[in-house]
Request: fold
Amino acid sequence: QVQLLESGGGLVQAGGSLRLSCAAPVSISNINAMGWYRQAPGKQRELVATITTGGTTNYGDSVKGRFTISRDNAKNTVYLQMNSLKPEDTAVYYCNAERSAWGIKYDYWGQGTQVTVSS
Reply:
């Protein structure tokens, strides 16, 4: 099973910053959009941010103004700059990529990277 490759998670103090990165393998082509989702223990997975190939972005309400998503289309790579981190940002962050082929859409996921924010 092909997976996206994530990195950048870790432990930081409240108010600190982290930068996550996610690279799609070369075998995954025609990517329409990439994004980040997160899941805390006992909670459902929620949208953090998405970005299309054209640069249109969408953010979850809880991260607006603090997180910034960006993309390098040539490298099939997406980044998530996280500033002013809060303890409630603690979660496993998953990268997602949407691919289209022959009119069919496919979703690919990373293995998840842990982000822990201490008070």
